[in-house]
Amino acid sequence: MRVKSTLVLFPILCLILLLAPILLGLVSTWLPAFGYMPVIGATHFSLSYFNALFQHPAFTASVTSTLVSGIGATVLSLALAFWVIMHLYGTRSWAFLQKSLSPLLAMPHAAFAIGIALLISPSGWLLRIISPDITGFDSPPDWLILKDPKGYSLLFVLVLKETPFLILMILSALNQIKFRETFWVGSSLGYSSIRIWSRLVIPQLMPKLRLPILAVAAYSLSVVDISLIVGPSAPPTFAVLINRWFNDPDVSMRLLGSAGAVVLFLIVALVLLSILIIEQLLAKTTASNLVNGSRRSIISTLRPLAYGLNYSLSIIGIVCLAVLIIWSFTQVWRFPDALPSAYSLKYWAKSWPNLVDLSITSVTIALASTLISAIIVVGCLEFEVWAKRNGQSINHQRVLLLNYLPLLIPQIAFIFGVQVLLLWAHVEGTWFSMVWSHLIFVLPYVFLTLSGVYRGYDQRFYDVALTLSGSKWKSFYQIKLPMLLKPLLYSTAIGCSVSLAQYLPTLFAGAGRFSTVTTETVNLASGSDRRVMAVYALWQFAIPLIIFALAIGLPNRIFKDRVAMKS
């Protein structure tokens, strides 16, 4: 007889929260794409909006720039991530890279893009430092470095942001294979370190990196906030163009936007399918090379490039932060001066009252969505523990795929449909709609960051506590929960940072009634005073940094007399 537990309600709730908005949102987006949207009087199904989309003068160029930046960023990020790890893993430079990964990953995408823009633009800090002595420029040159029509500047920023993420995913995957044993065997057979990586390690890693790579591809093809800051503008990338149609004062343009969202969904699906097919083809065509006996590789001679890339990634992140700090305190900074001629707190004082209001809204939504996510995730993981004890198997691969689902589907492809549902239910522009829309994207990250540690918990501690107390609740709250407090707080910090960075969900679910630090930062990036823009971008970075500091510092404070609990 199959034993049941009330804990099964948590996986069911998780399933509903993740799948329901995506499926219903897709349906509510696809119906208007085919001409059915009764609320504006469109009641006849038609393909006319797809015809209008394909004939739109911006369609071809916007799709081209989307593919160039999206596919290019995915391929280059993966190549650079493997390049750095293959050459530097286990060296002295590796410790430096590990320490510099956290600031790069913690910096929100919008703040990072603004930092890059202030750094490499024709009037940016890099050109100011070398002008006029080296360049001879007394005024900014007329160079199209940012917002180029092909999307190369967007590609550049995406590569810088996604490479550290993939490095982190590779490190996580290394813990799931017998890496040291593999390396020892390869070394004993006379293989160089590069050959060991390419012939023995990477083939084991690729199946475990499949979902993160697909998530990077989906994000790069459909990103909106970074595209608004550094991407092409005439025409913009396809996702930004769709967003414009959805927000056009002419409500009939929402039908064209829905058609665009369907096409973008199909483009992303086709690219992801192509990645899976290419992976299988490469695995088959290169299988013979794995056993051809070659011990050395010419790539080994290019190790200095990996060192340069390692330090470049770290330095770029530090310099981006530095240029934001300088601009936020600038009063007068004329080109080509390397530093401002006058500093002031004026723009901080001017922006602070609004920043406080925006921060309260942002943090409240982030904490609410993250705490709900954490409770659901802990419930799901406790159900896994219960199921294992009662002989019921859990398919972890399906669980992983479910959690990656919101990351594999473009937000713009279903978020309009979610807005339609919220409007139909008369909850659009409420706290409920804001928290729910953020929860869709926060929950997967909380699950992914917490599940590994939670599943690795030594259940014997709980069993001893249960034996002594006789209470499941006391054993859980007084023993298991405190022992897992550090990973729980870290996952909460990750969830908050994800919520704080949400742009489209806030824009659509908020119905103009809610503004967050992220939405204001992206809006200001389109043409505001650089000093004000830097203030907002810096504060957008500071909030998650404070939350991460609390997540790291609180366990040390709480367990100050327990050394083992701090590790």
Main traits of this protein?
single chain, 567 residues, MetI-like fold, 2 domains, 24 helices, 4 strands
Task: Characterize this entry briefly.
The protein is mainly α and 567 residues long.
Percent of residues in helices comes to over 70%
Strand order of the largest sheet: 1-2
Which percent range describes the beta-strand content? Answer: under 5%
Highest-level CATH class of the largest domain: Mainly Alpha
User: Helix segment count?
Assistant: 24
| Helix/strand order, N-terminal first | HEEHHHHHHHHHHHHEEHHHHHHHHHHH
Tell me, briefly, the overall form.
globular
Q: Residue ranges: pLDDT <50 for 5 or more in a row? A: none
Q: What value does the Rg take, in angstroms?
A: 25 Å
| CATH H-tier superfamily of the largest domain | MetI-like
Number of strands: 4
Describe this structure in words.
The protein has 567 residues and is mainly alpha-helical. The chain folds into two domains: 59-243 and 266-344, MetI-like fold (Orthogonal Bundle), CATH 1.10.3720.10; 347-395 and 427-567, MetI-like (MetI-like fold, Orthogonal Bundle). It is 73% helix and 2% strand. The protein has 24 helices and four strands. It has helices at residues 9-33, 48-55, 59-88, 92-106, 109-120, 125-130, 152-174, 179-188, 193-222, 225-230, 238-246, 253-285, 303-328, 346-389, 396-408, 411-424, 431-455, 459-469, 472-483, 485-500, 504-510, 517-524, 530-558, 563-566, and strands at 36-37, 42-43, 330-332, 342-343. A two-stranded antiparallel sheet has the order 1-2. A two-stranded antiparallel sheet has the order 3-4. Helix 1 packs across helix 12, helix 3 (59-88) runs antiparallel to helix 9 (193-222) and helix 9 (193-222) crosses helix 15 (396-408). The protein is globular and about 75 Å long.
